[in-house]
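Board notes (copied after class):
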Amino acid sequence: MNESVFWQVIESAWATYPALDKTRQRAAALNQSDALQQLAIMLEQVVIPAIGLKLMELDREGLTDFIRTLEAKMHQLDRAVLYQQTSLSDLCFIHARALIIGMGKQYFNLIDQDPAKATRHLEAEYVTTIGYKIYEERFGRPIEKFAKHSILTGSNKAAWVQGGR
């Protein structure tokens, strides 16, 4: 799976709810924190289940690639400067990065390029676990987590050297 397929899974889950998707695109483009707070709730309640349905359509290789791409994106966002902007704890920072990814490619790129634009205290826990859950349901055993990239806070050592905590 290339990165565009990864984003297509997330974007197509949002597209399942056209009005919500339009709100998300506008909120991401304008970086509207109030709208993003409401969208975080909808991400957890309706979009993540839609992502799960999309993941159920993938074969083992596709689902594994989705999980590895998610882990790589989480690792990419694991930076001290983003931690300071978004979170109060290591666990909250995992969920904050998950939200950034779950909001889709446009918002991910915005925050990746300028972490100061991230909204404080927004989280989406289940973005990090949906792929693992679907994999275990489909194939009867868990997939190895963090085979290439850890999603744990502080695991991207190069991105924490100058920023500290």
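Comment from the instructor: The radius of gyration is 15 Å. Residues 116 and 156 are 19 Å apart (CA to CA).
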